[in-house]
Amino acid sequence: MSWDFETEPEFQKELDWIDKFVREEVEPLQYVLECHPYDVRNAARNKLVRPLQAEVKKRKLWACHLGPELGGQGYGQVKLGLMNEILGGVVYAPIVFGCQAPDSGNAEILAKYGTPEQKKRFLQPLLDNEIVSSFSMTEPQGGADPKVFQCRAELKGDNWAINGHKWFSSNAHLASFLIVMVVTEPDAPPYQRQSAILVPADTPGVNIVRNVHVGVHGGPGTHGYIHYDNATVPKDHLLGQRGQGFAVAQTRLGGGRIHHAMRTIGQIKKAFDMMCERALSRHTQGSLLADKQMVQEMIADSWIEMEQFRLLVLRTAWKIDRYKDYLKVRKDISAIKAAMPKVFNNVVSRAIQIHGSLGVTDEMPFVGQLIESFVMGIADGPTEVHKVTVARQVLRDHKGTTDLFPTTHIPKLRAAALKKYEGRI
Questions:
Q1: Which tens digit of pLDDT belongs to each residue from 295-337?
Q2: With CB atoms 3.0 to 4.6 Å apart as the test, which of 37, 63, 239, 357 could cross-link to 72 if both were Cys?
Q3: What is the C-alpha separation between 316 and 331, in angstroms, rounded?
Q4: E strand map for 48-158
């Protein structure tokens, strides 16, 4: 029997190095670089980021989610989760360690379904962070319901012609290619209508209508609203089989949700630490905030929720490593996705309250985190959809009764017990 909550000493050494390296070398980047972390064409960004990436590669911690044949370490989900917990609290850390989304998932798709020429042109540069990519699926009229998708691809001779609109294609303006989910089989069952197609970003007809910004302040947006206007790519740019787009997409989702959840824990932990520091530093009404029982309640509730969520994520990662089958942990993964925005929102909201007016300014990171918590409840499937999945999976392990009263009805149980011990009492 093995049931352990300790990290093996050798890997703990790596985690300790990552923690120190991220705090001392990577975190300062977000205060001096004004460009987008994914902007690989920015000279100032590359001057500071490339040497750090080289150190990570030298340490053999680059793109650890990938197998050795792709330059990674092939780590399991528990190890990757523990790494991402550290990386999550710092903007540039995933880029420095070669595990940023959506590039990490898109690389796995290309590795599995791409042609040799596509791998040479796109996969290797993506793995080296010489280029970045985008996953283009959501549409303006719907994102979580594939039955309403309208963006079409028609095979005309040896080429696919793509027409339609896509919404919230993150980093599209910086990407060298997009993986686009399109309807190719309109008469098939709902989840067999879509196909995944590789589209180079410079393809004529790929038109970014605008880049959408998240939040209330101005500034450049990063989520592309795209009009595919007869964008034409060769027939071999189909990734996987026709109508199997969602199966292809699953290549990037299961483990990716674990990594995203652990990165979120890194963000939650950061907000929690700032909350505690503030409570131990600020005096009001004759004593520290930390001495106020309502503040103590907020800190206690935050720690409990954070630790509960962390253990749920790590147990799910352990299950993935053990079973090697995402279908067996579908319930757990959906539970993580459903719990994540609520825990994040709760902890950040309390941190804002304890910081007072300072907490709602742009001099602290909480407002951005708070908005991100709402994004998490929408992106990659809304919370409601994941809760439905959890409930359906849970109910499969239970059954009802045809009796008038429940099987645990006390009078019924008492009668059965009396009959069992009749003559002995």
A1: 999 999 999 999 999 999 999 999 999 998 888 999 999 999 9
A2: 63
A3: 9
A4: 133-136, 152-156
pLDDT in the model for residue 191: 87
Q: How far apart are CA 158 and CA 240, in angstroms?
A: 16
Closest CA to 259 of 380, 132, 390, 133: 380
What is the β-pairing status of strands 133-136 and 159-170? unpaired
Q: Is 16 helix (H, G, I), strand (E, B) or coil?
A: helix
Alpha carbon of 156 to those of 163, 170, 242: distances in Å? 13, 29, 15
DSSP β-ladder status, 177-183 and 133-136 = parallel
DSSP-derived pairing of the beta strands 283-284 and 287-288 = antiparallel
As separate numbers, helices (DSSP H) first and strands (DSSP E) second, the chain gives 14, 10
Classify burial at 313, counting beta carbons within 10 Å of its beta carbon; exposed 0-12, middle 13-18, buried 19 or more: buried
As a whole number of angstroms, the distance between CA 391 and CA 7 comes to: 32
Structure tokens at 49: 């980021």
Q: Are 174 and 223 in contact (CB under 8 A)?
A: no
Closest of 305, 304, 302, 328 to residue 316, by C-alpha: 328
Going by the DSSP 8-state scheme, the letter that residue 213 receives in this structure is P
pLDDT at res. 146: 79
Query: Tokens 């080429």 appear where?
Result: 159
Contacts 24+ apart (CB under 8 A), 364-368: 364/274, 365/270, 365/271, 366/271, 367/215, 368/215
pLDDT tier, 2 (very low <50, low <70, confident <90, very high otherwise): low
